[in-house]
Amino acid sequence: MKDASHNQDEDQNNRRVLIIDDHPLVRESLKKIIQKEPDLTVCGEAEDRDQALELVAITKPHLTIVDLTLKNSYGLELIKDLRDQHPEVQILVLSMHDEALHAERVVRAGAHGYISKQEISAKILTAIRQVLDGQIYWSEKAAARVASKIARQPHSIKKFSVDLLSDREMQVFELLGTGHNNRQIADALHIDSSTVETYRSRIKEKLNLKSAVELFQYAICWSNNPKL
Q1: Which of 75, 106, 191, 198 is a good FRET partner for 144, with 20 to 30 A between their CA atoms?
Q2: Domains (range + CATH), the chain
Q3: Where are the beta strands (DSSP E) in 47-155?
C-alpha cells in the first residue's frame, strides 16, 4: 500500500483521488497526469481490495479510479464494497477489458463511469471531472450500445446472451475463456470448486449449452470476440 505524502500547506479544497490498480506503471502514469491539475491531488495508491478499502477509510477520497483486474481480487467486488461502505465516494473504472460489455455492468454494480486504458492520456481528466460533477462517464461507443438496448423491443433481445449472466457467473465465464480449470477459478475467486461447478451449470443453462465441452468452446470463442 502506498499512501501519497501531503504537504501541510496543500490546498485543502483540492478534490482527492485514490488510484487502485495492480500495475505500478499505470498508477505512476495516472498520478503524473492528475498531479499536474491545480484542483486535484492523488491521496493514495492501492493494488488490491483490502488495501483500497483501508485507504478509502483513511484518506476519504472524493473519487476512486478502479481497475477491474486487481492483485488477488476483482474490481467488480470492490465496486460493490465501496458502494455499500462508502456511498459518498465516486467510482471511475479504468480497464483494458472490452467496454461493450463491461461499461454497463460496472455502472449497474455502482460505478459512475468507465474508461479504457487506451484512453488514459486523452480522456482521463475529462472522465474524472465529469464523474466528480455527479455525471456518468461513458465513451460514445458504450453510450450508443446502452441506448440501442433500451430502444429494442423485448422480443428482439437475444434469448441466450452473456448479458443474462450475473456478475459472478460472468467472472467464471471469463476465466473459463482464458483456460482456467475449476480449481484455478476457485482459487482466483476464493470459493469452493463445488461452487464453481454450480456456476458452470447455471451458465450452461442461461446460454443454452448442452455440455462442458460446448461451454468451454463458447467461452474461448467469446474471449476472442466479446460481441458473440
Answers
A1: 75
A2: 2-146 (3.40.50.2300), 162-224 (1.10.10.10)
A3: 63-67, 69-70, 73-74, 90-95, 113-116
SS3 184: helix
Which residues, other chains included, contact 16 with Cβ-Cβ below 8 Å and sequence gap of 6+? 41, 42, 43, 59, 60, 61, 62, 63
Length of the chain: 228
Predicted structure pTM score = 0.68
Element (H, E) at 156: none
> Residues 21-41, buried b or exposed e (16+ Cβ, 10 A)?
bbeeebbebbbebbeeeeebb
Dihedral angle computed from the Cα positions of residues 56, 60, 65 and 69, in that order, rounded to the nearest 10 degrees: 0
The pLDDT tens digits of the residues spanning 84-116 come to 999 999 999 988 876 666 777 788 788 988 888
pLDDT digits (tens, 9 = 90+) for 36-57: 999 999 999 999 899 999 999 9
User: What backbone torsions phi and psi does residue 224 show, to the nearest 5 degrees?
Assistant: -90, -15
Beta bridge partners of 42: 17
